[in-house]
Amino acid sequence: QVQLVESGGGLVQPGGSLRLSCAASGTIFVVYSMGWYRQAPGKQRELVASRGSGGSTIYADSVKGRFTISRDNAKNNTAYLEMNSLKPDDTAVYYCNAYIKVRAWESRGNDYWGQGTQVTVSS
User: Fold this and answer.
1) CB count, 10 Å around CB of 87?
2) Partner residues linked to 65 by β-bridges
3) CA–CA separation, 91 and 106 (whole Å)
4) Could you report the per-residue pLDDT of 8-17, keeping only the tens digit for each?
5) Using an 8 Å Cβ cutoff, are 81 and 17 in contact?
6) SS3 105
7) What three-state secondary structure class fits 17?
8) How far apart are the C-alpha atoms of 78 and 98, rounded to whole Å?
9) How many CB atoms lie within 10 A of CB 40?
10) What is the three-class DSSP state of 65?
11) Among candidates 34, 53, 55, 51, which has minimal Cα distance to 98?
């Protein structure tokens, strides 16, 4: 079984910074991509940032220039989201997502989700 464990959420003032972490564990053959989604109250879950195994990245327009997604080279199953210049609109539950192939013989991977971590930006 695969587990994604997130950490690093909390309360921060506007303009502040937070760093989210996501560690994938369990039976894993390869992690193709890792990313972060968020869901604010009354809104749909949206992609924040994603990073492929080759290093390509995708960011939501609303976070470009403020957020950075990275993967730990030593711990290849760990991803981070560095969030700077936070705004009240960034308040949401942030979910880690990973596309993982569990066994080599599988034809495709599957999406896995973390439990979510709350980020609140408020003065």
Assistant:
1) 13
2) none
3) 38
4) 999 999 999 9
5) no
6) coil
7) coil
8) 10
9) 14
10) coil
11) 34
CA pair distance 38, 56, nearest whole angstrom: 20
- CA 110, 111, 113, 119: dihedral to nearest 10 degrees? 160
Is residue 104 within 8 Å of 48, Cβ to Cβ?
Answer: no
Length of the chain: 123
Give the C-alpha separation, 58 to 65, whole Å: 12
> Position of tokens 């502040």?
16
pLDDT digits (tens, 9 = 90+) for 23-62: 999 989 999 999 999 999 999 999 999 998 888 999 999 9
Residue 82 · residue 66 · CB < 8 Å: no
CB atoms within 10 A of CB 77: 19
State residue 53's pLDDT score.
Answer: 83
Q: Which two tokens stand for residue 42?
A: 């009354």
